[in-house]
């Protein structure tokens, strides 16, 4: 009996102790839970405060960036408006000073009067050079609004050289047109890069002596594409290089007065600013008597986008892929042919065949039976009339759409041509015209 009482007492004691431990554990767990909940709530409030502060900081940064953007735009617009308004009175000053000197036979000027007229003309020429230079600097500092595109820089350099060929020929300087290279692409704003090439190449031609040459080369170096414009002129000293890139320095302004109409102010400062807006660089290397070389460094297009499937959305958001079909391109200009090949390579879907003259084009058209023809209307003196007549005499080719490309802006329509594109033809315009020509039934194409 005593043993039974002892066992019952032991069980009761153990149960009571267990209940007490359980209650104590629950109390501690509740305290820990309350402490955790309090800390979690505090952390949530802190996170919310940090997110609010970050939002305010981002908003302030965006406002500052927008104000800076608008400030730069207003500054550039102001300089451009002032420069434009100054051209009219400068034109009058230059014109009347020239009249005074040219009319010296009818109304003779004294020696002092002739000197005064010459000084007036020189000062007006210097002022006009400064005004035009300020306009170039203001345009370069305008915030970029265009999207960066994947382009072949040598193709743009080729186009920039074409308007300069006449000046180079007049100066008896050999200007070698660069040929596009497959796979050599950079991410740039094409319009800005065209202006950069025009400034750098024009400067090289202007510095070259008669019988000299200007050449353009490009290479891929790491994550950059480097385009080098080299001349074999008299070269530049370190002070002259500094003047080219620092046009607002006192000695650079003074050089405008010394060189007069031959001054190239503001030099290459505007080109350097244009490149900096595209994450690029412009550097000059020269030694007196050994010519000069200007290196244009551009961010290379992503190597991953050049391998495998082309990234059409980055190039032309309006188009995904070109329609399937066979296209005959009748043109002689190598840059235009390279552009067409690049378009076909990036967007696929097309089989491209090229003929460099109308006779070859007509023969290839009879053999290939293309779905569309792109004809350079400047290829022959008759504007491609003989080719089109030959093409339409074949019954199988009467409904084939023909796109014409002309450098004459007044040519808006041509017989048997569905659509006329004017140079310079943009990649977007060319792709959209091909899409329209290849989309629709043959009868509809012929009707267009």
UniProtKB/TrEMBL annotation:
Residues 326-438 form the Response regulatory domain. It is an enzyme of class 2 (transferase). One of its GO terms (biological process) is osmosensory signaling via phosphorelay pathway. Residues 40-67 form a coiled coil. Signal peptide: none annotated. Keywords: ATP-binding, Coiled coil, Kinase, Nucleotide-binding, Phosphoprotein, Transferase, Two-component regulatory system. Pfam families: HATPase_c, HisKA. It catalyses: ATP + protein L-histidine = ADP + protein N-phospho-L-histidine. One of its GO terms (molecular function) is phosphorelay sensor kinase activity. This is histidine kinase. It comes from Brevundimonas naejangsanensis.
